Amino acid sequence: MQAIKSFYDWVYKITLFICKLLLVADILVVSLTVLGRYVPFIPDPTWTEEVTLTLMSYMAVLSGALAIRRGAHIRMTSFDRYLPKKLINVLDILADIGVLALGVIMIVEGFNYANGIGAKGFYPSMPWLSKKVMYMPVPVAGIAMVLFELESLVNNILRLLGKKTYVEREASLEEQVAEGSV
């Protein structure tokens, strides 16, 4: 179980690091655009708008995949205090299956679009760069979503079966160490 947690932690950290790099690159490109427009001796590059939008699309979908791991995605919880725990857990599993299906669709259709429409077009300001780059965030995020959703699904199934997830096991072990009983 610790190896699985380590793998997911590693994937999460890599994805988060990529999002941070994309944000820094986005800030630099937008800064160059602003400087190019308002500082007379700095040329205003024509490619900055397209690059900014592409970087933002990668960040948006990858950060959505990160939210799955943290459980920070939008969900309806107003009735959770009135429903039995087992029912809530079953509903969480159904939601996991739905999001997992969405991730698979994003992978399949995203690669289809990237290799179909995306492979045929080029950026007007950068004719050497295929628009395939613009369509790739969807399947890349689909892969991250599937990975993180599988972890969530397994944890919810373990909870339904009355077993502790590896995160809960780790937390209880830390409590025992803090109390001095281990």
Jot down its keywords.
182 residues; mainly alpha; 7 helices; elongated
Indicate the overall shape. Answer: elongated
The share of residues in helices is: over 70%
Poorly predicted runs: none
Main sheet: which strands, in order across?
1-2
N-to-C SSE string, H for helix and E for strand = HHHHEEHHH
Tally of DSSP β-strands: 2
Structural class: mainly alpha
Gap between N and C termini: 20 Å
Total helix count? 7
Fraction in beta strands: under 5%
Total domains, how many? 1
**Rg over alpha carbons:** 21 Å
Brief characterization of the structure:
This protein is mainly α and 182 residues long. It has helices spanning 2-38, 48-70, 85-115, 117-120, 132-135, 137-160, 166-179, and strands spanning 122-123, 126-130.
Overall description:
This protein is mainly α. The chain has one domain. It contains seven helices and two strands; from the N terminus they run ααααββααα. The protein has a two-stranded antiparallel ribbon with strand order 1-2. Helix 1 runs antiparallel to helix 2, helix 1 runs antiparallel to helix 6 and helix 2 packs parallel to helix 6. The relative contact order is 0.12. The model has no long low-confidence stretch (mean pLDDT 85).
Task: Give me the secondary-structure topology.
Elements: H1 2-38, H2 48-70, H3 85-115, H4 117-120, E1 122-123, E2 126-130, H5 132-135, H6 137-160, H7 166-179
Antiparallel strand pairs: 1-2
Helix pairs in contact: 1-2, 1-6, 2-6, 3-6
